Amino acid sequence: MNESVVLDVKNLKSHFFTAKGEVPAVDGVSIQVPAGKIIGIVGESGCGKSMTAMSIMGLLRYPGRVVDGTITLDGRDITHLKPKELSQVRGNELSMIFQEPMTSLNPVYPVGVQVREAILLHQKTTKAEAKQRVLDIFQAVGIPEPEKRYYNYPHQLSGGLRQRVMIGMAMVCRPKVMIADEPTTALDVTIEAQILRLMKRLCAEQGTSIILITHNMGVVAEICDYVYVMYAGKVMEQAETFELFEHTKHPYTQGLLKSIPRLDEKADRLYTIEGVVPNLLHLPKGCSFCTRCDQAQERCFTEKPGLYAAADGHGVRCLKYESGVKMDGE
Amino acid sequence: MENNRKILLEAKNLVKEFYIGGTKKNPQVVHAVSNVDLQIYEGETLALVGESGCGKSTLGRTLIRLLEPTSGEVDFDGQNIVGMSEGQFAGLRRQMQIIFQDPYASLNPRMSVKQIIAEPLVTYGMKNKTELEKQVKALMKEVGIAEEFYNRYPHQFSGGQRQRIGIARAIALRPRLIICDEPVSALDVSIQSQVLNLLKDLQEKYGLTYLFISHDLSVVKFIADRVCVMFLGSVCEIGDTDSLYEKPLHPYTKLLMNAIPKADPRLRNEEKELLSGEIPSPVNPPSGCRFHTRCPYAKEICRQQVPEGKTVGERKVFCHFPLG
After folding, report:
1. What does the pLDDT look like over A45-84, one tens digit per residue?
2. Among chain A residues, CA nearest to B270
3. CATH topology for B7-95+176-263+270-275+307-318?
4. Residue ranges of domains in chain A
């Protein structure tokens, strides 16, 4: 990946300081987001994908905190900005859309006014001009009758329309990077397909990079350029989408892909990854996946694997690929 | 599908409407299920698919009288259960069970696993404590929950384990029919495949019949023998899984399949035809074919006439102009 990197996350560690102990929710994650690309972060619940996003956005709440690592947006270190500086970046250069569009919109204001607020907060412009820009962005994200919808309250819109409003709000200041946390999980497949197509189009038209967080391998395959697979707070495998799906290397990724029922073949039984995601407070001593891995050897239980390059731009956190160059500086 | 297979449950012209307001002369009614005819054969898995709000859960619940139908008939094992007295129905009810979508809401947090699984057994007359304990432990083993969790409470389990407890409760009375209402939608993929395999194993072992309600077409492809596609309270198409997936006859089925994100980047197709718009309101469903407002092939007749069911081989399609 030699394209210009807009967002560079290096060795990010976010821990939660709970009564039961320190939980390493994000444990040394490095992510590079090139301009105008869609990056996927995929994993099961509790793997730390949302916490990575919250850390980048500076939205981690007590008892969580970024303990190590740097986040660089367009050459500027934003890891430890003061709240005031951060709020200038957030919503302007860096924006986010959430999974549940009902709870992330304010129920007592018309949606148009909420989107307009994002412009007025960050840019010097008149209210009338800002309104016009809201109507333009509503048009761009495919909301029918923007004039009428401008004055609608969130409860008057369907789930799909609400998510379009959220995307409009996130895109209206033309951010450099937009983080989408499970943007289509609450939607029906037919609406999901519409929203994914919309995001891809906006990304291409406006040159915005997108970090797409999802648990759905299908969504990743559909629109992402580069993918990070996370498990227990760590990146297990990273590669370009085609490379990842065609030459899957990590046993966890292989297991994930095998356990999804496929449309193009009929199977009698599904492959299963035995067991459950380990408790982050009591991670195995070696590889965090060793207890569920069907290819685990003795050393996997005692040695922590690094992220090794198995092919160009393809990193695998597994001792099987030890011969490759180490990609992270642990 | 051989014709000599035994029909376990049959819905005839089933209607379920919910009254939501309006005046007596002009009531406002949600047409959740409209004139559905459906047969479920003994030992098969029939999947009910559709988008949210299409009435698939309502239909599932109406079929086992968790909701009373507005009109129509449901025959279970040849007997019409609609309008049957509670006393008569009690004996039949134990033969139909349901597994719910949300494993967090469907288990009583104040009951231990043993009480949850034993409840149906106790309700249907098992009093002997040792026998009860033996049965509950056997059921737990059957669904893959360790015996030592016997006294634990639901909050001590993960989503996948809770769903297993729900399954144990459903099979406790050895029912013939189980309605599975989105049983794996709330689970992670790696857990989802474990539960799907379990459901398949149990079906084989006990000859269960499933009505599997889901919006996930890839899961349905794995588990179902036949599929029924619903849109806005009415059936679009019924047929056996393989041929329905290979060659959808109803435009809605085809567009629904197009919309599924496929876990293979080589199948990307940015030009593929997508459904536009959203589901119309079930309070004022469109006239004629209910799908005509979103259908790219709709003609004048679709706006006026409700399509009759056409039989194509073993399949049935409700469309004026089936694809093919």
Report:
1. 889 999 999 999 999 988 999 999 999 999 999 998 998 9
2. A197
3. Rossmann fold (3.40.50)
4. 5-231, 253-330
With H, G, I as helix, E, B as strand and everything else as coil, classify residue A34.
strand
- Å between B15 CA and nearest CA of chain A: 24
Pairwise CB contact (< 8 Å): B197 & A188? no
> What are the tokens at A131?
């309104």
CA dist., res. B212 & res. A261, Å (int): 15
pTM listed for this prediction: 0.89
Q: Which residues partner with B73 through β-bridges?
A: B12
Which chain B residues are closer than 8 Å to A189 by Cβ? 51, 215, 217, 256, 259-261
* Residue A215 to residue B192, Cβ atoms within 8 A: no
**Exposed / middle / buried, residue B201 (Cβ in 10 Å: 0-12, 13-18, 19+):** middle
**How far, in Å, CA of B197 to CA of B200, rounded?**
5
* Inter-chain residue contact A260 with B260, CB threshold 8 Å: no
Q: Could you tell me where the beta strands, DSSP code E, fall in A164-307?
A: 177-181, 209-214, 226-231, 234-240
A160 contact partners, CB below 8 Å, separation of at least 6: A187, A188, A191, A194, A195, B278
Contact A241 B51 (CB under 8 A): no
CATH 3.40.50.300 location in chain B: 7-95+176-263+270-275+307-318
Cβ neighbours of A193 in B, within 8 Å: 258-261, 274-275
Question: How far apart are the CA of B275 and the nearest CA of chain A, in angstroms?
Answer: 6
CATH number of A5-231: 3.40.50.300
Task: Give CA separation, B289 vs A2, A210, A226, B144, B285, in Å.
Answer: 54, 40, 43, 46, 9
CB pairs under 8 A between A and B: 123
Q: What would the pLDDT profile of B168-227 be if each residue is shown by its tens digit?
A: 999 999 999 999 999 998 888 888 999 999 999 999 999 999 999 999 888 999 999 999
